[in-house]
Amino acid sequence: MQRIKIPQRRFKDDDLIDFAIVGVGSAGGVLLQRLARAGFTAVGFEAGPFWDTERDWVSDEAGSHKLYWNDLRITGGEHPLALGANNSGKGVGGGSVHWAAFVPRFHPSDFEVYTRDGVGADWPITYKEIEPYYDLLEQEIPVAGPAWYPWGKPHGHPYAPHPMGGVGDTLIAGCTKLGIPVSAGGPVAILSASHGDRPHCIYRGFCIQGCKVGAKASTLVTHVPDALKNGAEIRDCCMVARVSMAKDGRTDGIVYFDAEGKEHFQRARVVIVCGYALETPRLLLNSACPGQERGLANSSGTLGKYLMAQAGNVILGRFENLIRMYKAPPAHALTEEFYETDPKRDFARGFAVQTVGPLPIAFAKQMMAAKGAWGWGMRREMMDYNHWSSLGLLGEILPWEDNRIELADGRDGRHDARDRFGLPVAQVTFSLKDNDKKMIEFGKNKVMEIMWAAGAVEVVQESRYAHLVGACRMSKTPDAGVCDKFGRTWDVPNLFVMDGSVMPTQGSANPGLTIQALAARTADYLISQKEAILSNSANGRRDMSEPPCRRSLAPPGTFTRGIPHLR
Amino acid sequence: MDERQPLTNPATGEALAKREQPGYYPGFSTLKQKRYWDAATRKVVEDRVSKQKSIRFFTAEEARTMLAVVDRVLPQEDRMEERRIRILPGIDERLYENRLEGYRFEDMPPDQEVYRIAARAFEEMARALHDRAFHELSVREQEEILKSVQQAKPQAAQELWKQMNIERFWTMLVADVVSIYYAHPWAWDEIGYGGPAYPRGYMRLEEGEPEPWEVEEQRYEWGAPSDSISDVEELHAGARDHLVHPGQAGTH
Question: Measured by CB atoms within 10 angstroms of the end CB, which terminus of chain A is less buried, N or C?
Answer without folding.
Answer: C
